[in-house]
Amino acid sequence: MNETAAPLVEVTGLTKRYGDTLAVDGVDLTVLPGEVYGFLGPNGAGKTTTLRILTGLIAPTSGSVRVLGGSPGQADVLGRTGSMIESPAFYPYLSGLDNLRLLAEYAEVPRERIDEVLDLVDLADRAKDRFSTYSLGMKQRLGVAAALLKDPELVILDEPTNGLDPAGMRDMRRLIRELGSEGRTVLLSSHLLGEVQQICDRVGIINSGRMVAEHNVEDLRGEQELVVRAAPRETAQSVLTEFLGAGTVHLYDDTLRVKVAPDRAAEVNRVLVEAGIAVSELHSTERALEDIFFELTTSEERADVG
Q1: Residues 28 and 11 sit within 8 Å (Cβ to Cβ)
Q2: Mapping DSSP to helix (H, G, I), strand (E, B) and coil, where does residue 222 land?
Q3: What is the pLDDT of residue 12?
Q4: Local confidence band at 142 (pLDDT 50, 70, 90 cut-offs)
Q5: What is the pLDDT of residue 214?
Q6: Average pLDDT of span 186-201
Q7: Alpha-carbon span 178 to 23, nearest angstrom
Q8: Which residues form the ABC transporter domain (predicted)?
Q9: Domains of the chain listed by start with CATH number
Q10: CA nearest 100: which of 58, 147, 138?
């Protein structure tokens, strides 16, 4: 990832409205050269709509969108972009190979490139089978192969592991990591927190059409925190909040997550014991992206209600 180079994707104030429905609401998004960027959010959050705008499939209602230095849908931009938006569509009674041949001819791509992308997605041995006989995972991989035909600088993938079994998800993640390690820039959408945490350099979190956060994965996760199991739990939360300040203690399942440095564990334990609270567990842990996601989206939903 080149943090000093100009962004390959730069979106400012992007809005898309369908009648009375606001699908995307003032989204700002930046994708840097050479990174794997995860566009994370629950189903219906506005991810696919945003990606359709980036690939020129639909027009925004308002906002500024620049892709590879140009506007979405321009011939030069499309020639340097590969994408798979929603489920890949191919002719069912043609083989995977023949489907790619048609696309290659349309895009004026050399025939030898077909063999290269089939090898990349590990479909060479099934290339001559009809598309209709492919498993869901194979169909997804053929969709990625089609996205790679033009040897693009930017690869945009919409929920690439959607519907796959665990083995298929593992293979797809490995493929995406390989694309990133080759110096390509990958923008992928996902509703799977673990997936984004495993393969992405940076992540943008969208909820109800609005961007909630955009950070490096490690920066977003932040420093370690303390996990405390104590009884009575509500009293422990109150005591620690008074001691450490508002916003430092959160309830997670049946434990408390305390945003302090691990070297303050003895101090936290002492405060609880002196307050007559029984501490059965206290250890440090890194914050998971899942915790942060729910924390951010819950805060956003509360703000909407307020």
Answers
A1: yes
A2: coil
A3: 96
A4: very high
A5: 85
A6: 84
A7: 32
A8: 9-233
A9: 9-220 (3.40.50.300), 223-286 (3.30.70.980)
A10: 147
